[in-house]
Amino acid sequence: MLSLTVEQRSWMHGWPVSAKLVILCLFTLVLWPLNDWRLLLATNLPVVVLYLSAGRSFAKAGAQRLKPLLYLIAIIFAYQLVTGRVEEGLAICFKLVATVSLANLVTMTSRLDDMMAVIETLAKPFRFLGLPPRALGFAMGLVIRFTPLFLQRGSQLNQAWRARSPKRTSPRLLVPLALSAIDDADRVAEALRARGGLQQEKTTKSQSESAPEMRTE
């Protein structure tokens, strides 16, 4: 459900990525303690206004990319309906819609490398624990980049199943979906190794800094 940056420019594209991520975090922290489904329904209205403020085509593209969320919401609400907790189910669903929609809006209006830079900066304190900030930022970038592709592949497998069988979609589709994700991970790892890994940039930078000193000697 997390989307890549859309080509259509909006006023939100000019905002710093750090500011948008802070707003997303604050919005989520304020939202999740709420339990009244009416109040949670109202919190979705500002998100809808943000989408519409970028134009009708932008809002349509955002709604299109949020379609996979509907399946998750349907499953959650069906479970809450069976257990007799309708109001609690509505509250959970409205929370998910608001937070995921706002997160999708952030990724639609932010460059992936800018988001990776912010995450890398925030991860610097974890360097003392042996976690390289650049690797953490890169990993988060891969999650954002491959999430829509992973969902699209799942949809393709589901359509292929329905085209070949009158039965309902089987959970066995999770096996080829997981195998395809592992295959993609192997290909990304091979591509990184072929380019020197994540330390290549650091090595190149150190070499460029030492080059003037060599010339002065």
Write the layout of secondary structure elements.
Blueprint: H1 17-31, H2 37-53, H3 56-65, H4 67-82, H5 86-108, H6 112-122, H7 133-164, H8 174-194, H9 200-216
Molecular structure report:
The protein is mostly helical and 217 residues long. The protein folds into two domains: 1-110, no CATH class; 112-201, no CATH class. The protein has helices spanning 17-31, 37-53, 56-65, 67-82, 86-108, 112-122, 133-164, 174-194, 200-216. α4 (67-82) runs antiparallel to α5 (86-108). It is globular, with a radius of gyration of 21 Å. The protein starts with 16 loop residues before the first helix and ends with a helix.
Output the keywords:
9 helices; mainly alpha; 217 residues
